[in-house]
Amino acid sequence: MHEGAIAESIVDILKQVMDDNNLKRIVRVRLKIGKMSGVMIDALLFALEALRSEEDVISQTAFDIVETDVKAKCNICGEFYEYSDVSEVVMLCKKCGMPLDIIEGKEMEIVDVEGE
Amino acid sequence: MKRVVVEKKILERNDESAKKIREILKNKGVFALNFMASPGAGKTTIIEKTIEALKDNYRISYIDGDLDTDRDASRIKKLGIDVVQINTSGACHLDADMVLKALKQVSLDCDILIIENVGNLVCPATFDVGANKNVVILSVPEGDDKVKKYPVMFNVADVVLLNKIDLLKFLDFDVEKVKKELKEINPDADFIEVSAKEGYGLDRWFEYLKNLIANSSLL
């Protein structure tokens, strides 16, 4: 379960954000996780919950996770594809048969935080 | 209450370390391969055969990631090449920081650096370890449904080796289905059928690898 390592990276970045912005506590964090990032949301929330007791920075923090669909585009004909189910993803253009470029769905990002 | 826009990649630190690894390897003229597969797919055996076949013409170093024990590392050490073992102590994948640390110990006076990731078809796919190419091994006994089940891993593969092809006659395994599903999730991935035990297809893999290395040195 690599979500433990991801949760630790989130905590490290949040500590930096707290220092940089003179925050005493962080109450809310918005995360953007692509469906093709390889991260299981439930496992990530579980890992963050497990870290809560040992990491003061997230002791009172709520995590909002925005899960993004996989979006891909054909660079040849411009056709756009969106997949909400990763097992359905086909990286070939149905119109012209060329490989697609993923434009969204692999990201793992801290979008913003609320604190005081 | 204050809202702070962060917009930071969670794995930014890993990606920075992976970039450092690429720079170090490029300066040294080293071509690095990251081998990923399930436990038991045949990573170490394929690596052994690859080293045996190429070691007279290429200098090879090897980094092994394992949860515990140095069994794989001692197998490779017997071949007389420089080996560094990373015990991830429970972690299910290698990350770029672990590899960066191992680079300080392993001999970089080499042409090829082989990184054997932890046996796992999920977690290693998420962590860039700074290699030039990702080699993903699938083996026949695992079943022909794995590409669709682990799309993130097969999407990051540069080449997929289908190992234990000698067992096709005993098992219901549809090679064409695997090829088709691989093409769908990763149209650019190459695909080579091998049997590390019987030797089938290995020459094709060695030639493929030699070409990769030759082409990379032209860049």
Keywords:
heterodimer; A: alpha+beta; hypothetical protein PF0899 fold; three-stranded mixed β-sheet; three-stranded antiparallel β-sheet; elongated; B: 219 residues; alpha/beta; Rossmann fold; seven-stranded parallel β-sheet; 8 helices; 8 strands; 37% helix
Which percent band covers the strand fraction of chain B? 15-25%
Numbering strands along the chain, what is their spatial order in the largest sheet of chain B? 4-3-5-2-6-7-8
In which range does the helix fraction of chain A lie? 25-40%
Q: How does CATH name the architecture of chain A?
A: 2-Layer Sandwich
Spatial sequence of strands, sheet with the most strands of chain A: 2-1-6
Principal-axes shape call of chain B = globular
CATH fold type of chain B = Rossmann fold
Instruction: State the assembly state of the protein chains.
Output: heterodimer
How would you summarize this macromolecular structure in one to three sentences?
Chain A has 116 residues and is α+β, with helices and mostly antiparallel strands.
Describe this structure in words.
The complex is a heterodimer of chains A (116) and B (219). In chain A, strand 3 (70-74) and strand 4 (80-83) form a beta hairpin. The two termini of chain A are 33 Å apart. Helices cover 26% and strands 33% of the residues of chain A. Chain A has helices at residues 3-20, 41-52, and strands at 26-34, 62-68, 70-74, 80-83, 100-104, 108-115. A three-stranded mixed beta sheet of chain A has the order 2-1-6. A three-stranded antiparallel beta sheet of chain A has the order 4-3-5, with no helix packed on it. Chain B is of the alpha/beta class. Helix content of chain B is 37%, strand content 22%. Chain B has helices at residues 12-28, 43-54, 71-77, 96-103, 146-149, 151-156, 175-185, 202-218; strands at residues 2-9, 31-37, 60-66, 82-87, 112-116, 133-139, 159-163, 190-193. Chain B has a seven-stranded parallel beta sheet, with helices on both faces. The longest helix of chain B is centred in the first third of the chain and has 17 residues, at 12-28. At the A-B interface, helix 1 and strand 6 of A face strand 1, helix 1, helix 6 and helix 7 of B. Strand 6 (108-115) of chain A pairs antiparallel with strand 1 (2-9) of chain B.
